[in-house]
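Weekly structure sync, notes
Attendees: PL (lead), two postdocs, one rotation student
Agenda item 3: pending single-chain targets
PL asked that the sequence for the first pending target be pasted directly into the notes so everyone works from the same version. It is reproduced below exactly as submitted, 83 residues in total.
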Amino acid sequence: MAAITAQGAVTLEREPGCLQFDVCIDTADPNRVLLYEVYEDQAAFDAHGKTPHFATWKTVADECVEHLELTVASIVSSGTTQG
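Predicted structure, written out during the meeting:
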């Protein structure tokens, strides 16, 4: 968890094309983690995979991630609440 939360923070800090990077844990299974990432466009997402901090995360992920599934989607509607 430390590695992926660090990855998210560095991604947001260093990649202007990354608009959001959330690390979520499944409430029914704390070993299941969802990364919700939003990028400006496909080019920004592609550039993300070529960064040194992604390579660092990939090394850790290779040791601890059992299953990886990538879903690419387009945002149709977006909203936030402020509280």
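Discussion points:
- Residues 52 and 60 are 13 Å apart (CA to CA).
- The chain has a mean pLDDT of 92.
Action: rotation student to compare against the earlier draft before next sync.
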